[in-house]
Specification:
Layout lengths: L1 E5 L4 E7 L5 E6 L6 E7 L7 E4 L5 E2 L4 H9 L1 E2 L2 E2 H7 L3 E6 L4 E7 L3 H12 L6 H19 L2 H13 L13 H5 L3 H11 L5 E7 L3 H13 L9 E3 L12 E6 L5 E8 L8 H19 L4 H8 L8 E7 L2 E9 L3 H13 L9 H18 L3 H8 L12 H7 L2 H11 L5 E8 L1
Parallel strand pairs: 3-11, 13-17
Antiparallel strand pairs: 1-2, 2-3, 4-10, 4-11, 5-6, 5-12, 7-8, 9-10, 14-16, 14-17, 15-16
Length: 429
């Protein structure tokens, strides 16, 4: 196995690519009793138009990645959750726009739990009957999300920013779209995206590296997989022209809510993985300087009653899309848009964007980062992002320390454009 030592955080990462293409990462953590295993595929809700290179392309119903995640736990012999429970483990799974992940945490029977994780994900079992049954369950889940104000707000904005792109579609799909899903559709998606060459296994916690790797290798060598093929994913071109500048939705809320979004274009992203990591961190630091809860702008807007304690922002950078969102409960919807928009657009002349504030925020960000390393779950979930080439979560301290004010301005120049702004309001019925 290869290994990389990170002196700053006192961690050693071990990694290997198996003959079948599976990427394996092991991180032993002394002093922890728990072990956390995460088996992830580079496949999410936006991957609905795809195929293998030099073969026919397929378009599948929205929500199928999430549907497939649900179905993976059901086998002819029974429910996999029960098996994990018998081994003293807690298991879960989740689907995002770009990933589907399966995981367990346990304090003992690690080999058996690892085998269970690898085996159930690599043994699909779908029948027309079980697929039909699942539609009702997921349909109820979709309806539940329809009542979630924050969820509706989030996807309301994404639909404004990405009206022609699958990122604007709910991860679970719609009741109508999942009604179209067949067992054949599930097998097609599974055979395309669940090949080991498109997957990552990350194990962190109380483990012996050599022993754990031997278990994984033996498990994989006992199985036969199809030859590795290059996956082709098709997405619509993204432009500023398609952005919907304003929309609203009436819901039974006590107070109006507004979210202001900024869309970034893929062609404006740095291509180099390290530069991309700098870009993401620099924009996060910029937004903190401009509108963090200790900033002058935040305090002014708060005192003027334009925002309240619900105000928050996030910057999302993922495969195929990146955007920033600012949201708050507010009675001053127009003022909220105008003020936040002007603050963001005028980043070069804002006095709060300076060397002193940047240095303070870098220290604060590093403090939060080191604290986060105490969570095995956080490490695993953050680590399995494939956006930054060979760089990992553990390279972040060097990246953050190295960011200059010029890096911040450069990232903002690449991202912030008035044509990329949109507003979405939730209005009381």
């Amino acid at each position: 196995m290869h290994k990389k030592r990170y002196e700053q955080i006192n961690e050693t990462l071990y990694y290997e690519r198996l003959d079948n293409g599976l990427k394996v990462y092991l991180l032993p953590k002394e002093g922890f009793h728990k072990t956390y295993g995460l088996f992830s595929t580079n496949y999410g809700s936006i991957d609905n138009h795809f195929g293998f290179k030099n073969q026919a392309l397929h378009q599948v119903p929205d929500g199928i990645a999430h549907f497939l995640e649900h179905k993976m736990f059901e086998k002819e012999q029974g429910d996999v959750f029960q098996k994990f429970g018998e081994l003293g483990a807690s298991a879960n799974a989740f689907t995002s726009f770009t990933r589907t992940s399966y995981l367990f945490s346990a304090t003992n029977h690690i080999k058996e739990n690892l085998d269970t994780l690898l085996d159930f994900v690599q043994e699909p079992y779908f029948t027309p009957e079980t697929v039909e049954k699942e539609k009702g369950i997921i349909g109820q889940e979709i309806q539940m999300y329809d009542d979630d104000v924050n969820w509706r707000q989030f996807f309301g904005m994404l639909r404004n920013l990405y009206p022609n792109h699958p990122v604007g579609i709910d991860i679970a799909g719609t009741v109508d779209s999942i009604a179209e899903i067949t067992a054949d559709d599930l097998y097609l998606c599974y055979q395309t995206f669940y090949h080991p060459s498109n997957m990552t296994l990350f194990v962190v916690g109380n483990i012996d590296v050599e022993e754990t790797f031997a278990w994984i290798k033996a498990n994989q060598e006992a199985k036969t997989f199809a030859p590795i093929q290059e996956i082709v994913r098709v997405f619509p071109e993204q432009t500023y022209e398609e952005v919907v500048s304003y929309s609203q939705l009436k819901m039974p809320v006590n107070r109006s809510k507004s979210v202001l979004g900024i869309k970034g274009l893929p062609q404006n992203l740095p291509q180099d993985p390290k530069e991309r990591m700098i870009f993401r961190s620099a924009l996060y630091l910029l937004l903190q300087m401009l509108l963090g809860n200790t900033s002058e702008n935040f305090l002014r807007l708060y005192n003027e009653g334009i925002i309240d304690d619900t105000f928050g922002f996030e910057f999302n950078l993922d495969r195929e899309f990146h955007c920033a969102l600012f949201s708050s409960d507010t009675d001053k919807l127009d003022d909220f848009e105008q003020e936040v928009k002007q603050i963001v657009l005028n980043y070069r002349s804002d006095p709060t964007v300076n060397e002193e504030n940047l240095a303070l925020l870098k220290k604060k960000t590093l403090g939060k980062y080191f604290q986060s390393l105490n969570s095995l779950e956080h490490i695993a979930n953050q680590f399995t992002q494939d956006l930054f080439g060979e760089l990992t979560l553990f390279d972040m301290p060097d990246i953050i320390k190295g960011i200059t004010l010029e890096d911040v301005y450069q990232a903002a120049d690449q991202f912030i454009c008035e044509a990329g702004f949109s507003r979405f309001d939730l209005i009381p019925e």
